[in-house]
Amino acid sequence: MTTSELKGGPTQPEICAVAVDKLGIRPGDTVADIGCGTGTVSIAIARTAQRVYAIDIRPEAITVAEDTIAKSGLTNITLIEDDACSFLQESERIDLAFVGGSKGLPRILLLLAEKRVRTIVVNAVLIETATSAINTMRALGIFAEAIHLQVSRSHDLAGKTMFKPENPIYIIVGRCVSY
Amino acid sequence: MTTSELKGGPTQPEICAVAVDKLGIRPGDTVADIGCGTGTVSIAIARTAQRVYAIDIRPEAITVAEDTIAKSGLTNITLIEDDACSFLQESERIDLAFVGGSKGLPRILLLLAEKRVRTIVVNAVLIETATSAINTMRALGIFAEAIHLQVSRSHDLAGKTMFKPENPIYIIVGRCVSY
Amino acid sequence: MTTSELKGGPTQPEICAVAVDKLGIRPGDTVADIGCGTGTVSIAIARTAQRVYAIDIRPEAITVAEDTIAKSGLTNITLIEDDACSFLQESERIDLAFVGGSKGLPRILLLLAEKRVRTIVVNAVLIETATSAINTMRALGIFAEAIHLQVSRSHDLAGKTMFKPENPIYIIVGRCVSY
Amino acid sequence: MTTSELKGGPTQPEICAVAVDKLGIRPGDTVADIGCGTGTVSIAIARTAQRVYAIDIRPEAITVAEDTIAKSGLTNITLIEDDACSFLQESERIDLAFVGGSKGLPRILLLLAEKRVRTIVVNAVLIETATSAINTMRALGIFAEAIHLQVSRSHDLAGKTMFKPENPIYIIVGRCVSY
Predict the structure, then answer these.
(1) A162: closest chain D residue by CA
(2) What is the rounded end-to-end Cα distance, in angstroms, of chain C?
(3) d(Cα C121, Cα B18) in Å, to the nearest integer?
(4) Does residue B4 lie in a domain region?
(5) How far apart are CA A87 and CA A83, in angstroms?
(6) How many other β-carbons are positioned within 10 Å of the β-carbon of residue D90?
(7) Residue (of A140, A168, A137, A138) closest to A152 by Cα position
(8) Closest-CA residue of chain B to D147
(9) What is the pLDDT of residues B87-97, one digit of tens each?
(10) Which of B53, D29, D87, D109 has the most crowded CB, counting CB atoms within 10 A?
């Protein structure tokens, strides 16, 4: 299985750039990439963070991510084939979390809020997931902002330029105040 | 050849609705649909206008449009396989013009301005065509407004809803002041 | 109070054109405009429909709409200052419904589904309202499609052209199969 | 004069994140920020690059940027109050260039192409500027891609969420092949 065959495919570079910017990564941070898929976002995060835990419950995602991460040459990413909630209940300190997968989102957000994760960034393509993320974050008192991002990309048409749109995405950001 | 096989395909219904609204059609109007393609826009215009001249230089467009128009049951559309400029130079009064094709656009706009066409609506997918339409209309003193339209359409994903974008379009509107 | 002072303001012409197109109005139709606000959409509908009931619970909306409708010269719009649900429970046949206001939306959709209204078009600016409309329509088995519409409008900047975006809108469409 | 008073205002964080990502900055790079305005982009670039030359011909931009840069604590940004072309003609090696200002763009792009700058990123709000950047880069054989970016940002409306759009932007990327 290759990167583009994995369901969802790799995160578009522009979406990745904005999501990583929203995280506000500091050099010493430990970051969880929940539903890491192809590992594209993990790699972008690992360029600044100290350690990245890339979690996915799908064995085929782990296989693809393993390959992508190996090619990147980065050594500070740990791949974990597990359920996100199990991982979060057992894990030590997590400074930041990126959530690319939507399964069990409310419970994941609750666990992240309990851990006082500094910033949580959720990427959602489904309007139901976006609304659920916003509602849950509002209920937990950690909602910071949401963004709707529409990227269109130039395509050559006989030497002229048309713009073809990528799928729009919601980026929802939560912030926990530390005690 | 079917509607969807013709280069460019039929105009999206939302784009069509906005473009027709911009024309501001009155019941007695004669309208030119320049680069009529599949005839979709001609049909929408013909529901209100008195007469529509649907012009396309491509024989395959005329064949497809003929079929679509026959199915619509409308009898006030005249199909013309010709170059737009030839048609405009010989035609009598034209009240409104919709321009879907971009070939020879500056000259078409000049001819339409000379004929004091009440409203001209240009649909453009290429940024170069949009800019050329705006520049030419500004130079002719007939530029009214331009719109960038991005429609995304719901798709079912396991009972949930994602939005997939259609290609964005520029709609450029010119208005001639009548003497 | 003027049109632009009423909360929400008038529906943008492009949004109005698309929403009215989605309704699929036939000449003999009776249409309910629920949460009619300034009356802009009612007027657009009344140009084709036989009768429009424009309902708003806010006295200030009725005052503004009264004025706008009078100026339009149309005589087939009946303004009703009432709660939408009360109106729907007592009303006779309704062929189509446009819902611009979001208060009590699930119950309004239930009543419209019970009345076998041919097409329901909901305009929503809030993501929660859009998701609620989609969910309720899915539950009622009447969900047809949803659209996300982003219109940007040209503004002159020293003879050049920048595009300023209007607020994006969700248009959700339901269709009842008649017995 | 404050940041928000300077014409154009600071670059939106999402736009900045994407533009900087497109540059592909390497730690040893020298970068020119042409038409630096408030200095927001210079600061983002300077976090990775070795040296940033922030150029603006407007004294008021230099004043604002001076203040913003001082607050950032970064010491690898050199502010230059000069015409971009004069600067480029006299400057030594430049690895990357970000162009935020549009004055004299074709000539700036020509000079950057002659200097074999690795990547050029142009941000444009005007459709004429975007088209000019694309055309010039195509003519110079350095056009890589163009992006249209539409960011909408959540606003609270009585505990619910509406999305208000920022001005859309074109990001045009050129790449020179080095000998």
Answers:
(1) D146
(2) 45
(3) 17
(4) no
(5) 6
(6) 8
(7) A168
(8) B127
(9) 999 998 999 99
(10) D109
Residues A140 and A109: their CA atoms lie apart, in Å, by 9
> If you ran DSSP here, which 8-state letter would residue D168 be given?
P
The helix/strand count (H/E) of chain B reads as 6, 8
C-alpha to C-alpha distance for B38 and B61, rounded to whole angstroms: 6
Domain limits at B57?
13-175
Is B60 inside a domain boundary? Answer: yes
Query: Are D96 and D116 in contact, with CB atoms under 8 Å apart?
Result: no
Identify the residue whose tokens are 């040459």: A73
| Backbone phi and psi for residue B63, each to the nearest 5 degrees, phi listed first | -60, -45
For residue D72, tell me if it sits in a domain. yes
pLDDT at A179: 53
Cβ-Cβ contacts under 8 Å, D166 against chain C: 165
Task: List the structure tokens of C43.
Answer: 């007027």
CB contact under 8 A, D163 and C167: yes
Residue B108: CATH number of its domain: 3.40.50.150
Q: Could you report the predicted ipTM of this complex, rounded to two decimals?
A: 0.92
Type of residue numbered C7: K
Helix, strand, coil share of chain B (percent; to 5): 35, 30, 35
Q: What is the mean pLDDT of residues A32-53?
A: 96
| Pairing outcome for strands A169-175 and C160-165 | unpaired
Q: What is the pLDDT of residues B95-143, one digit of tens each?
A: 999 999 778 999 999 999 999 999 999 999 999 999 999 999 999 999 9
Whether B153 sits inside 8 A of C147 (CB atoms) is yes
Q: What angle do CA D112, D167, D67 make, to 5 degrees?
A: 65
- Pairing between strand D160-165 and D143-157? antiparallel
- C-alpha torsion sign, points A156, A160, A165, A171: positive
A37: left (phi over 0), alpha (psi -120 to 50) or beta: left
Q: Which among A101, A111, A114 is positioned nearest to A179, based on CA atoms?
A: A114
Phi, psi of D78 (to 5 degrees): -105, 120
Spell out where D64-118 has E strands: 77-81, 96-99
Residue B143 φ then ψ, to 5°: -70, 125
| Sequence-distant (≥ 6) Cβ neighbours of residue A16 within 8 angstroms | A40, A41, A44, D21
Nearest CA in chain A to D133: A161
- Name, in order, each residue with C-beta under 8 angstroms of C65's C-beta and a sequence gap of 6 or more: C36, C37, C38, C39, C42, C54, C56, C79
Greatest C-alpha distance within chain A = 59
**Mean pLDDT per 10-residue segment, chain C (179 residues):** 64 95 97 96 96 96 95 97 94 95 90 96 97 97 98 96 97 87
From the list B126, B163, B167, the residue facing A168 with the nearest CB is: B163
Find which of C20, C21, C132, C162 to mutate to test the B interface (most B CBs within 10 Å of its CB). C21
Q: Give the per-residue SS3 of D26-76.
A: CCCCEEEEECCCCCHHHHHHHCCCCEEEEEECCHHHHHHHHHHHHHHCCCC
Q: Which helix (H) or strand (E) holds B140?
A: helix B127-140
Counting the structural domains of chain B, the total is 1
Q: What is the mean pLDDT of residues D60-88?
A: 95
CB contact under 8 A, B168 and A168: no
Nearest CA to CA, how far is B131 from chain D (Å)?
6
D75 found inside a domain:
yes
Give the burial class of B178: count Cβ atoms within 10 A of its Cβ; 0-12 exposed, 13-18 middle, 19 or more buried. exposed
Nearest residue of D to residue A169, measured between CA atoms:
D151
Alpha helices in A13-58 (DSSP H): 13-23, 40-46
Mind telling me how many Å the CA of B60 is from chain D's nearest CA? 32
Q: What are phi and psi of D93, to 5 degrees?
A: -60, 130
